[in-house]
Amino acid sequence: MNKAKLVMAILAIAGVLSMFSIGVAVAYNSILGIVFSIVLVFAIFGYAFSLKRKFRERGLL
What we know:
Elements: H1 3-27, H2 31-58
């Protein structure tokens, strides 16, 4: 496994954990936690997709 795939795997795990945090925030009835978790999901996935495009352009994936 090269470094690019390892970085993408770490970002995928971070995305899953941030989606999990939405469920936890819902269980605790925390509106602020829900909003923060949703923003975190979009930030992580946005960064991951932009990084994936850069990796593909460089031929690393």
